């Protein structure tokens, strides 16, 4: 067994201490329960920092490369302290105990699965798949077992959804951060699962399975076609899963249409775009930052949809138009840039003077038409899949796309590159479109 696999297995063994927390939570005294829940991890942290010397076999098992310099197991101590912090939240602030156990197991056992997969085949995608699959399977089982050991319960669909989400989020964070930042990953995943549990999406097991399967297949296809990098693929899969479960199939149809057609439009006449200097980097494969910049507003909208009306006193339809408007804006911007950039004589949107192709804020009439076609596609899907979106609502969504495209161009001509970057401009444009959708829907009484 290689040292990395052995170390990952040792960390997984430490993660197994999380199963002691359900028993501690059953103690009558909150103070005693807190001590009992956090003590196993605090003891591990103490030994890692002060009692395990650099010349001992245990040190060799747990040590990461940076631990040798000072002769202390910083990685193990930080992981144990992060777990102790979540255990404290589970006792004192009603973080579900099974969610805590699932979080620790997802990260620790997922890491073990990643190391085993990497040893079997030295490929980044295979290793990440090992993390996600192992973390998802073990996290689901851990949630169910921990609920039975404690006093609470968890529906199978909830366990599947939260374990899948947690595994994807953990894999994504580990792909964009240093792998030794597992403490940050543990805390982030735990807090996210707590939020999603409080939303109580109420999706059935079949829907969750469909969401997991469809998202995984489409994510792999996107990566295989080089329309997304590995972090971009993970981000897209995560967004797809959340959209199906929290929103529904109609919401997902809009989002996946943007991902699919947007990615293919980037590949369209890629060499010609390279000659013009307007091609996306990395052979057109979009990273997590690009995917999030175009989708974060839509993701917030679907989360708010799930939170209303039980958690916030707002008509849920408001957030539907915010979501559709944001996706339409992302589609119009992508289509107008990828197709319009292939034509000559663009004009700066603020002064209408001719500029070179690829100039921020430069537009062509062909790009505008392409953008409106993209918005029309999103609007048509919304009208076909969602009963609340009629002809007026579809026209509104097209208008949101136009607003987003215009805001993107104006910001590109004025502040891009000096105040904000391209991804910031994309986020602001989708936000403007979402707010337009909300305001217009309220004005014409669509909600």
Automatic annotation (TrEMBL):
Transmembrane segments annotated in the record for this chain: 30-52, 73-91, 97-113, 125-147, 153-172, 184-202, 208-225, 237-261, 291-307, 319-343, 363-386, 393-415, 427-446
Subcellular location: Membrane
Coiled-coil region(s): none
Domain of life where this protein originates: Archaea
InterPro entries: DUF92_TMEM19 (IPR002794)
Membrane topology classification: Multi-pass membrane protein
Family from the record: Belongs to the TMEM19 family.
Protein name: DUF92 domain-containing protein
């Amino acid at each position: 067994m290689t040292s990395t696999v052995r170390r990952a297995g040792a960390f997984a063994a430490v993660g197994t201490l999380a199963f002691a927390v359900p028993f501690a939570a059953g103690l009558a005294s909150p103070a005693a329960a807190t001590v009992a829940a956090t003590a196993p991890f605090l003891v591990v942290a103490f030994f890692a920092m002060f009692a395990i010397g650099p010349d001992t076999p245990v040190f060799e098992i747990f040590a990461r490369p940076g631990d040798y310099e000072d002769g202390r197991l910083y990685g193990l101590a930080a992981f144990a302290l992060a777990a102790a912090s979540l255990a404290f939240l589970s006792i004192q602030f009603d973080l579900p105990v099974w969610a805590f156990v699932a979080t620790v197991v997802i990260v620790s056992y997922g890491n073990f699965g990643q190391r085993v997969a990497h040893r079997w085949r030295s490929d980044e995608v295979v290793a990440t798949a090992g993390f996600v699959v192992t973390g998802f399977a073990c996290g689901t089982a851990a949630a169910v077992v921990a609920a039975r050991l404690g006093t609470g319960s968890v529906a199978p669909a909830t366990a599947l959804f939260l374990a899948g989400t947690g595994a994807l989020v953990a894999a994504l964070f580990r792909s964009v951060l240093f792998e030794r930042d597992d403490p940050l990953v543990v805390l982030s995943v735990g807090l996210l699962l707590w939020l999603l549990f409080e939303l109580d999406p109420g999706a059935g097991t079949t829907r969750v399975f469909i969401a997991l399967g469809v998202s995984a297949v489409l994510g792999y296809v996107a990566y295989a076609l080089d329309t997304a990098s590995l972090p971009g693929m993970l981000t897209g899969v995560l967004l797809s899963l959340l959209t199906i479960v929290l929103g529904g199939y109609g919401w997902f149809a809009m989002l996946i249409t943007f991902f699919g057609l947007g990615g293919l439009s980037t590949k369209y006449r890629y060499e010609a775009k390279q000659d013009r200097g307007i091609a996306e980097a990395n052979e057109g494969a979009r990273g997590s930052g690009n995917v999030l910049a175009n989708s974060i507003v839509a993701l917030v909208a679907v989360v708010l949809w799930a939170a209303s009306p039980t958690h916030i006193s707002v008509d849920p339809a408001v957030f539907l138009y915010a979501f559709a408007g944001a996706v339409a804006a992302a589609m119009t911007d992508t289509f107008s840039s990828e197709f319009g950039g292939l034509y000559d004589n663009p004009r700066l949107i603020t002064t209408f003077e001719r500029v070179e192709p690829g100039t921020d804020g430069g537009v062509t009439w062909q790009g505008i038409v392409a953008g409106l076609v993209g918005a029309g596609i999103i609007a048509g899907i919304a009208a076909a899949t969602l009963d609340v979106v009629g002809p007026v609502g579809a026209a509104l969504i097209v208008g949101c796309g136009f607003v987003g495209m215009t805001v993107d161009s104006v910001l590109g001509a004025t502040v891009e590159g000096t105040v904000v970057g391209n991804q910031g401009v994309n986020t602001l444009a989708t936000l403007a479109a979402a707010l337009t959708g909300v305001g217009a829907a309220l004005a014409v009484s669509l909600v």
